[in-house]
Amino acid sequence: MKTSDFYYDLPQELIAQDPLEDRSSSRLLHLSMKDGSVEHRHFTDILDYLKEGDCLVVNDTRVIPARLYGHKEETGALIEILLLKRKENDIWECLVKPGKKARPGAKLVFGDGILKGEIIDVVEEGNRLIQFQYEGIFEEILDQLGEMPLPPYITHKLEDKNRYQTVYAKNDGSAAAPTAGLHFTQELLQKVQEKGVKIAHVTLHVGLGTFRPVKVDDVENHHMHSEFYVVEEDQAKLINDTKKQGGRVISVGTTSCRTLESATDEDGVLHPGSGWTEIFIYPGYQFKMIDGLITNFHLPESTLMMLVSALAGKDRIMAAYEEAVKERYRFFSFGDAMFIDPE
Question: Which fold has domain 3-63+160-341?
Fold first, then answer.
């Protein structure tokens, strides 16, 4: 299976640069897994497709303002860092630009010195380990100094940080938003529950590997980045009970999907716990837990294109994307949504 099998042509102007004023007013492409038919609706019409007894599974991770601009203490040279993973004792794995001059021992200053850092090591893929020093609470300093780490294809400045958070975001740790959830408002979630649909929460802290292109020709040679996930005991019970009672598990986003598939055993039982997952889902994968998926439109040749193709079938996905381009849907993080429906 070739990476190029997952390529499609996308006009640049269809990449959404700004969030819509009303989260839930985006469009929804409905793709039936039964017959491959496509319907064009609005996101609020998701209510027409959900059934009493279903369980929506959302990722409640919260994006941290992980992009920091500062300078090297010795030379004053400007430097940009992106926080990727918290290690321990205020040590973070970071992406640093420009990287060549960011050698171990270099001291960094941010925000007039309210945050300082020292590069202590170079790790895989050229990332740096930085030990930070500060007075007070790190998260509050980040809120003050940091910017949202929008993906590279978004060039507009984000006016409101909250628009790159889901309305149910609560656990700090992501370098990118679980974007399928951006379409939900509290009002829409209330209507979902009133219909008799349960809502379960899992956490997966999205890493920047989400945007990393697949650089190998053969899909099976691609190595996934690892991401930290948590499944609480009561949420695992809620999801397992849904299955036992004949309900459908609908994942909101590929991150919730990867969490569920990582923590579910071969017998289809979801286990509570936490850990790191490198699960790579591509055609041929047998899904153990999810029945359907609400998701955004993904980059050509990306691992996420491979995941949705594994669920709905590559030919159906490619045909649906061709239709979405023709109908001028908005693509990627701030774009429109697709519901891959088991019905």
Answer: QueA-like (3.40.1780)
C-alpha 251, offset from chain centre: 12
Cα diameter, the chain: 64
What number of H helices and E strands is found in the chain? 7, 17
What pLDDT digit, counting tens, does each position of 235-262 carry? 999 999 999 999 999 999 999 999 999 9
pTM equals 0.93
Measured between alpha carbons, how far is 82 from 224 in angstroms, rounded to an integer? Answer: 19
The reply to whether CATH 3.30.565.10 applies to domain 67-145 is no
Please, are residues 204 and 102 in contact by the beta-carbon 8 Å criterion? no
- Angle, in degrees to the nearest 10, between helices 314-326 and 303-312: 110
Domain limits of the chain? Answer: 3-63+160-341, 67-145
Which amino acid, 108? Answer: L
Instruction: Note the helical H segments in the chain.
Output: 46-49, 138-145, 186-194, 233-244, 254-263, 303-312, 314-326
Q: Which run of H or E residues covers position 15?
A: none
pLDDT in tens, 215-233: 999 999 998 888 999 999 9
DSSP state of 264: B
Cis-peptide, bond into residue 178, ω within 30° of zero: no
Summarize pLDDT for 103-132 with one digit per residue, the tens: 999 999 999 999 999 999 999 888 999 999
The pLDDT tens digits for 55-110 are 999 999 999 999 999 999 999 999 999 998 889 889 999 999 998 879 999 999 99
Same fold, 3-63+160-341 and 67-145: no
Q: How far apart are CA 294 and CA 292, in angstroms?
A: 7
Residue 11 neighbours by CB under 8 Å, 6+ apart: 325
